[in-house]
Structure formats: C-alpha cells, structure tokens
Amino acid sequence: MAEQELPGVLILDIGGTHGVLEDIAALLKKHFHLITMKEFLGNKEEISKKIQSVFVFECRPSIDRELLESLPNLKVIGNSGVGVDHLDLKMISSFGVKVTNTPHAVADPTADIGMALMLASARRLVEGTVLNL
C-alpha cells in the first residue's frame, strides 16, 4: 500500500522532548501516513481532510473542540496510555469520534513496582540505605 493511500494520523512530533518515540513512529508508519502538528498547522486546509486518526502520546497533542472541528474525517483518537482522564470523552463522542487506549499495557510493570515498594517498606531498605551514606 503506497503512503498516499494510508490513512493519516496526527501526532505532535517524532522524537524530541514530547514527541512520539522513534520505535513507535516506525510502527505507526507501517499502517499510517504520519502528519506532525507542525505540518498540520502549516497547511490546515489541505491536510485536515487526510487525517482520520490522532495518536495521543504523553497527553499530546491536546484534544480540544477547535482541533476536532478542524478534522472533518476524524474517526478515532488512540491514546498510548492507560487512562483517558485527560480527554473530554463526552465532547469527543459528540463529534462521532471513538477513543481507544491501552488499559493493560503497564499492568505487569505496575504490579512489579508495587511489590518492590511493599517489600522495600517491610524490610526498611530505604532507611538502611540512607543511614549507610
């Protein structure tokens, strides 16, 4: 499938402080034509019709009414995190747009950290480390 045939996905940027990680961008490129927010803002008229999805990475780009109104063919917002509390689901659904997330993506690592913190607390590991400094 040629790049121009792929559906467009809006992302904040690739790399940098708040952009999508390079590995994730490479995966997205297999299924989407990536459009950065800078490209979108530089040519809203033409590009807005190509965007069918927004990929939210670390709560960016921010999804507001103005953005939704400017994307007439938007179908889905994919959130890379577990929660969607930073998204106004009622407003988004009023535009007929679906929201997805990855609810189990960090379940095992979170459980591991929780267990490590409980064990460290029970064994007073932090106190022992601080006293030995």
TrEMBL record:
Gene3D superfamilies: NAD(P)-binding Rossmann-like Domain (3.40.50.720)
GO CC terms, sorted: cytosol
GO terms of molecular function: glyoxylate reductase (NADPH) activity; hydroxypyruvate reductase [NAD(P)H] activity; NAD binding
Keywords: Oxidoreductase
Pfam families reported for this sequence: 2-Hacid_dh
Domain D-isomer specific 2-hydroxyacid dehydrogenase catalytic residue range list: 21-113
Database matches in PANTHER family: 2-HYDROXYACID DEHYDROGENASE-RELATED (PTHR10996), 2-KETOGLUCONATE REDUCTASE (PTHR10996:SF149)
UniProt-recorded name of the protein: HPPR reductase
Originating species: Panurus biarmicus (Bearded tit)
Recorded name of the encoding gene: Hppr
